[in-house]
Amino acid sequence: MKSEGVTRVLRKENAWGIATRSTTFARITLKVHSSLDAVRLTTAVAKALAEVAISANIAAAYYHDPIFAPFDQAADALTCLKTLSESEQK
Question: Could you tell me the CA-to-CA distances from 3 to 6, 8, 9, 15, 22 in Å, in that order?
Answer without folding.
Answer: 8, 15, 18, 22, 22
